[in-house]
Write a structure and sequence with these properties.
With 324 residues, the chain is α/β, with parallel strands linked by helices. The protein is built from eleven helices and twelve strands. The structure holds ligand PBG. Ligand PBG binds next to helix 6.
Length: 324
């Protein structure tokens, strides 16, 4: 039925009408807030490339989480900065490691907040890679043994969910088996299933002090040119037992998010990564864009593409706007 009988502008005339026909609804329940913890007391250190995002010591993180909880944000994704690093990243699975201590404290004070623990080695190894190095290359199968230990130490500390971000093959299955055989079959896994070797992670590497000391991550993270391969990664992770699969980064990969949702219809997260956050902040600080509008448009686009959850440094700012 063409013009003039059909006029799409009729339903755009008033805000109430626009609301009625709105297709995508970003909810506070969709948001996951990444949090960085470090040792010490009274620490709240701003990450210079991520204005408004801080590294917290365990005491100050609890103050921050009061805000997060009162805004109704259901979950955080926890990253740790250890005091010491070694070849094997042993602080990642130490029972008194920074993340393990933080999980205990946070769950003690905020029992209903969902604490998701990131599983990776890059912030804990002295070489900054996400796995064990043998003859200059990241060794897959030996790394799996360490990832299992990390997962167990995190859930023993009280984590509600674990999120492997290392991109080793077979890690979801390895972690699932470790959890199941130790009485943790009820703990879900959110896998960074399609994680690209992206330049958008730059600011995060400052935040978590996790830049590789030699080479890059292209032998384990995905080539940004590939989408079919992302679907294969996701299929394998679902087979291995992933409860939630993730596409990361989000903004330059909306097609992958869309295709993943269409193909698998599995709970799907997207990571609106550090570089995506910092670009918006930098442009806004220069007065080049209207920050809040751009932020909401980006988050909405990620949801519209098919993500069920969005991991975002904007979580608190977005929640404030959604709540209004
Ligand atoms: C660790 C990890 C990274 C991010 C999350 N977990 C960085 C990387 O792989 O180099 C990036 C998150 C962000 O940029 O916000 N493997």
């Amino acid at each position: 039925m063409p013009f003039p009988k059909q006029r799409l502008r009729r339903l755009r005339r008033k805000e109430a009408l626009r609301k009625m026909v709105r297709e995508t609804h970003l909810r506070i329940d969709d948001l996951i807030f990444p949090v960085f913890v470090r040792s010490g007391k009274g620490q709240k250190v701003e990450i210079s490339s991520m204005p408004g995002i801080f590294q917290y010591s365990i005491d100050t993180v609890c103050k921050e989480l009061e805000d997060v909880q009162s805004l109704g944000i259901p979950a955080i994704l926890l990253f740790g900065l250890p005091d010491s690093k070694d070849e094997l990243g042993s602080q990642a699975y130490a029972p008194q490691g920074i993340v393990q201590q933080a999980i205990k404290e946070i769950k003690g004070s905020f029992p209903t907040l969902i604490v998701i623990a990131d599983i990776c080695l890059c912030a804990y190894t002295n070489h900054g890679h996400c796995g064990i190095i043998k003859d200059g290359v990241v060794e897959n199968d030996q790394t799996l043994g360490i990832l299992r230990k990390i997962a167990l130490s995190q859930v023993e500390a009280g984590a509600d969910m674990v999120a492997p971000s290392d991109m080793m093959d077979g890690r979801v299955g390895a972690i699932r088996t470790a959890l199941d055989s130790n009485g943790f079959s009820h703990i879900p896994i959110m896998s960074y299933a399609a994680k690209y070797a992206s330049q958008f992670y730059g600011p995060f590497r400052e935040a978590s002090d996790s830049a590789p000391q030699f080479g890059d991550r292209r032998s384990y993270q995905m080539d940004p040119a590939n989408a079919e391969e992302a679907l294969r990664e996701i299929a394998l992770d679902i087979e291995e037992g992933a409860d939630i699969v993730m596409v990361k980064p989000a903004l330059a990969y909306l097609d992958v998010i869309y295709r993943a949702k269409q193909k698998f219809n599995h709970p799907l997260a997207a990571y609106n990564v550090s570089g995506e956050y910092s670009m918006v902040k930098a442009a806004a600080m220069k007065g080049m864009i209207e920050e809040k509008g751009v932020m909401m448009e980006i988050l909405q686009s990620i949801k519209r593409a098919g993500a069920d959850f969005i991991i975002t440094y904007f979580a608190k700012e977005a929640a404030k706007l959604i709540r209004k």
